[in-house]
Amino acid sequence: MWLRRGFFQWLFPAAIVLPAWLLIGWAIFNASGWAFLGILFIAAPAVLVGELVLALLIRARPAVRAQRAVSWWDVLGLTVWQALVVLFGCFIQPVSFAVLTAAIIVFLAVFWSSLAQLWNGARGSLRRMAPGTGPADLPSDNEDIRERARQHAEVIVVQEVGRPGDGRNIH
């Protein structure tokens, strides 16, 4: 449980740390100027937005909010995706394109997994809403109300009469 709670706490800081790592990795591993422009304008913003979207999707689930812990599928998906982002930030030229492609595929898998888990959690909430309990299910015909009042035999009618000038209508 501590690992799942740790990932819960890590969701939003990761949105800052991982794009920053891409810039730090560029400086440490002496990547080219074109790589810097790619990171600055494409990779870092994409990782930032991707992390925020995943964090909001994961935290939107009722089970995650109640336990303050992500699911094991989230732990697996986030671990793989974030490891690929860190590996991409190491700028290893022969595998850079393969790592980038794998990171995009894993992100999409985690995104769809989060959506599916959110949908399943919401579907459980919708099942609890039984038919016949909402305001649309109340009788709309006055005859139905009168008939129910006759069946129950005791009806108390309270008429409120306002004083002149207090803003109420006098009936």
In brief:
Helix content is 70%, strand content 0%.
Please give a structural write-up.
With 171 residues, the chain is mainly α. The chain has a domain at 2-120. Helix content is 70%, strand content 0%. It has six helices and no strands. The longest helix is centred in the middle third of the chain and has 32 residues, at 96-127. It is elongated, with a radius of gyration of 29 Å. 21% of the residues are buried. The model has no long low-confidence stretch (mean pLDDT 85). Keywords: Membrane, Transmembrane, Transmembrane helix. This is MFS transporter permease. It comes from Microbacterium horticulturae.
Determine the structural class based on helices, strands and strand pairing: mainly alpha
Beta percentage is under 5%
Which runs of at least 5 residues are low in confidence (pLDDT < 50)? none
Shape summary: elongated
In which range does the helix fraction lie? over 70%
CA(first)-CA(last) distance: 66 Å
Order of helices and strands: HHHHHH
β-strand number: 0
pLDDT averaged over residues: 85
Number of helices: 6
Rg, rounded, reads 29 Å
What about the largest sheet? none
